[in-house]
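Lecture notes, unit on protein representations.

Consider one protein chain, 248 amino acids long.
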Amino acid sequence: MRYFISFAYNGKNFHGFQSQPDAASVQETLEEALSTLFREKITIVGAGRTDTGVHAKQMYAHFDTELELESDYWSHKLNSFLPPSIVVYRIFKVADEAHARFDATSRTYEFYIHTFKDAFIAEGSWYHSNPLDLEKMNESCKILFEYIDFECFSKVHTDVNTFNCKISEAHWKQSGNQLIFTIRADRFLRNMVRAIVGTMVNIGLGKIEVADLRTIIESKDRSKAGFSVPAHGLYLVNVAYPYIEERK
């Protein structure tokens, strides 16, 4: 039987979601906990990858087991096997062909910037004290909707078949001393969101003009785009499926 697991994690101490040799990952930590709890080898398939240091307020994965699982009981038990940086919300049965990665219709990320030094949010938000022009940054967001090829924002030497992504939402808002960037698309390239934010910060600082964003995107050249902002301010906040309505 196939099950989905809904969970969240603080990425500070992980080298991303996906398992890799000689580095702590969210996937490996979850698989070890599930395998210990169910007393069988469990392998999970995540909705996507997050880079080193990136957080997830909502993530999904699927796994197969012959066990009949009662979600409330097993999610509570699983949390006792996990470090404080990972929390499981639900384990629930899905159709045998359901796939956490391929069935996802969109992913939504948020990036947090704080403009006044704050010791209590510093580990989950990027401190940037120089004034930023949010109006220009929101103007630049509209340009993203004109394109689907975002190779210029992708990490170089990435093994992908296409650089096409359909962005359906992108905007900045201010909440007190924090600036929050929200972006939703059907898929994202490696480092894409952090590179977009870095480019828009350059626009907000007046280093480049809004119209320059079109030239950057059309160049398909990573070196033409802005710097990558730090990972600790980035969160995966939503993964959408046609058969899952609730957030968690």
